Backbone:
């Protein structure tokens, strides 16, 4: 064994030790959101008024830490549309964070909507949706029906890059293309 081989081996070992102590370049943490989604059927002729109203309410939502997570419009027939609106808010209280881990834990099947609806953040979302947004919509149009297919509520977890504060989305790993001989 010559001196260059020994140097290469020692360098590789030292580099491996340094990297193991430094860790990954991306530092991640788990963030929990409480979310609620509702679908309402309205006359097609009032669609633009409702869209405008929701855009006007969005700054007030954001000030309260509530963000639109889902927004879709589905035309049912030539006369009505369904507006699906999803809201989310970051869960911050320790008590509700424990609820989140139980929600995703082994006992999930024993914690239906009623379990979610008792959380602080969940109560805030429900109040905002049903005591602010829905009444404002009722002022400008007729709500024909509530659409169950668009209704949902629960907790959601996401990985956050602690350096940027943005949601972490892992990059797709591609296999190297080796040249065949």
Residues:
């Amino acid at each position: 064994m010559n001196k260059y081989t020994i140097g290469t081996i020692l360098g590789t070992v030292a580099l491996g030790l340094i990297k193991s102590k430094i860790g990954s370049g991306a530092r991640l943490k788990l963030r929990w959101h409480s979310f609620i989604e509702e679908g309402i059927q309205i006359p097609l002729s009032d669609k633009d008024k409702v869209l405008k109203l929701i855009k006007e309410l969005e700054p007030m939502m954001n000030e309260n830490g509530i963000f639109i997570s889902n927004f879709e419009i589905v035309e049912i027939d030539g006369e009505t549309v369904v507006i699906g609106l999803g809201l989310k808010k970051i869960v911050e209280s320790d008590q509700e964070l424990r609820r989140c881990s139980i929600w995703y834990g082994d006992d999930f099947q024993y914690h239906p909507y009623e379990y979610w609806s008792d959380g602080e953040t969940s109560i805030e979302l429900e109040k905002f949706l049903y005591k602010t947004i829905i009444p404002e919509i009722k002022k400008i149009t007729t709500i024909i029906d509530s659409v169950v297919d668009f209704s949902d509520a629960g907790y959601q977890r996401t990985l956050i890059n602690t350096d940027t504060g943005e949601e972490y989305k892992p990059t797709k790993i591609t296999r190297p293309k080796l040249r065949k001989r």
Notes: Residues 30-161 form a domain with the Alpha-Beta Plaits fold (CATH 3.30.70). The chain has a mean pLDDT of 80. The chain has five helices and five strands. The longest helix spans residues 120-140.
